[in-house]
What does this fold into?
Amino acid sequence: MKTKQKHLPLLALLLATPFLGNAQGILGGHVTGNIQLDGQISHADSVIGAADVPEKLLMNARADILYTNGNFSAGLRFEAYQNPMLGFNSKYQGQGIANYFAAYNGDKLSVTMGNFYEQFGSGMILRAYEDRYLGVDNSLLGLNVTLRPIEGVTLKALAGKQRYYWEYGNGIVRGIDGEVNFNSIIKSMAESKFRLTMGAGFVSKYEPDQTISYTGNSAFRLKLPLNVGAGAIRADINYGNWSLQAEYAHKGQDPSIMNEFIYREGDALMLNATYSQKGFSANLQAKRVDNMSFKSVRTESGEMLYINYIPAITKQHTYAFLSMYPYATQTTGEMGLQADVMYKIKKETLLGGKYGTDIHLNGAIITGIDTNRIGGDGTLGYTSDWFKTGDLYYADASLEVAKKLSSKLKLTCTYGYQIFNPIVEGHEGNLHHNHILVGDLTWKIDKKNVLRFEAEWMGSDSKYDKNIDDKRCGDWIMGLVEYNFTSAWFVSVSDQYAYRDGVGNYYNISVGYNHGATRLQLGYGKQREGLLCIGGVCRQVPASNGLTFSLTTSF
Amino acid sequence: MKTFKIISFFIASLFLLASCDKIESDENGNYVVFSGATGTWYDSDVELPAIQRAMVEKYTGVRCTNCPAADNVIHTALDKYDDKLIAIAVHSGRFGEPLNNEADLRTEDGTAWFEYFGIVSQPAAMVNRGRSGNSWDLFTPTSGFDDRIDAIVNQDANVSMQIISAGEENGKYNVRIYLDYKDVVSSGQTLTVLVTEDDIHTTQRGQNTEYTDYAQNHVLRQVVTDTWGMEVSSDGMPGTKRMVMLSFELREECIPQNCHLVAFVSNKETREIINAAECVLQ
It folds into this structure.
């Protein structure tokens, strides 16, 4: 069993500092925290491809503890993976203090020492974040300083190494960012409807040289850049009901396993325009990404050690079939457009009825970028016409209509159409074209009892093929009944069944209990293998068959 | 003022951070460095155009009164044939003895060739160390010799060559030589790599005159390989591509920016030059 306790003495010192320096700090400070425990018992199931789990029981647990005293705070996170649940990297196996920090947060100055999370702009050159459900933690261990010399001006500087499971990556990440809100620093603009914020950042990573053979000739190795820089500029403009966010990022030569060790420089552009007024909003997003995978270790291909994050512009669906084919952002190259319109039909109209009707229309299309290959590793790799698109990766359109039928009944109906190219998940095969229908009826029986019914159908032109083994293929139906009673308990029963050209019957039952900040949930059923994606970042979830339980609480 | 200082500090930090590395590619567009042992032959993926070059090898000296005239003829030929003709000037023999206590431009390797090829008068020249019957095809290059050059450069190359000066590292220059076999070469081959230097100013005797500041060009300064070259490791079959890297210290008296690297592949038995290549020393 791996136990990580080397940071404990340091942590104890950090926590003790306020007590040693000022006895009154003991009384003035307070401790908060949260605990999460997830467990899984899974048995083999040859139909869905679930493997037997030798340990019988798998468990992920974590506890965040935060001590705050005035401007000072310190915290730690204990994590235990005994052993990691299915789908989480086995390198997490072990337990110990995964995260610790001490911070000062003043009006003009904030300093964090230890592990910290940070983001510059939309994250295209730096986003240190964690997502426990994805098993991603790109926290930096080092120093993070934020200055606010005058109102409306924020300057950030940081340096550190990224977490790599229970260790830290070799690369050193250094970054600086500045943001100016012109409405704050120019008095004449203070009350203006025109709001302008601009920012710029630069991130550099250093990694020692290493021998990476040139596949074209064994006599040569790649001449590696030890310092790789990425810079970005951004603007946030608002005028009345209109807003526009724009960010452009550029990255220097960064040969890595992610881009097959080519020397082409990378760039990315994000545009986001919104119009909103009462009862109506429209949003249009566009992006182009070319060779923007940016990791602090050039040979790391997994989910860890990303310095940056390329925002997703596809809708994060919540219904099961709509989210069966999530889109994973292609950091090596993609172009995309998304349009999103929400409209509320007013009450007391023909279509609005007594309570009004919400209409939500969304569409997105993502393609590859046009590339002309000029070589493999050790070369520029390819050239690309900036305005030409490559293969279609993903497209979806959905229309959601939500209507309150009475004071107790609410119906939401959704139609979705998706085109999915399996190449984005590294598979060959034809495009999948899916039609999806969802009906969601919520019945508020009384103040403490709610019953929800959900019915879904998906028709697809994909057929299950043993050689490819994509268990999402085929036509599906699903039903779900969820009952919340006494405001504390809930029980849910669902089943997904591939009735044509597919395989699998995935039933689930779960029971939960909420009390204050504590939630306990117990589930039994089958989980289909696939991708779990949050914000375009995904992890592979293997099939499982058995019991899951979860406990979360905060104090 | 305090705010100004803080912002200045951040801007200065920005420039400091901005010093990210920019890697330059080599002539083939590859971002690679040699990682093997020098002098070892490797397979190559570099395809070369089938250019057949000729090398004129002039045996000369500062006391040779007809040599300036030969220099003019060779200069004219170089203008005409451009990169298809390579010239080296081998200062050698008694005519090569320095004047006025100036630097001796003769070399041990040049002297070895001078003696081997049996040079008895200067200027004397050979193109690709060719033969005329049973003798070396030596001639006096004070008049045109285009026919000898044409006979070579108008042929298809059996072996294409490229020489790349791959920079200086720890006082040593790296040089890479690529061979691309276009046709069968059944004999064994040797590779010779040498350094020439331009613009060496010396006294030079001429016809009824003595030049006090004569610019000597293409002067053989050192042979990087053995005098008679190193063995080429190749099966000599069409499609075979080989490369080798050599590392050497440049003679102290040489001015690097005036130097060129010359490489030629010879028939191991006959010593006839099969093809040659040249590049600027970098």
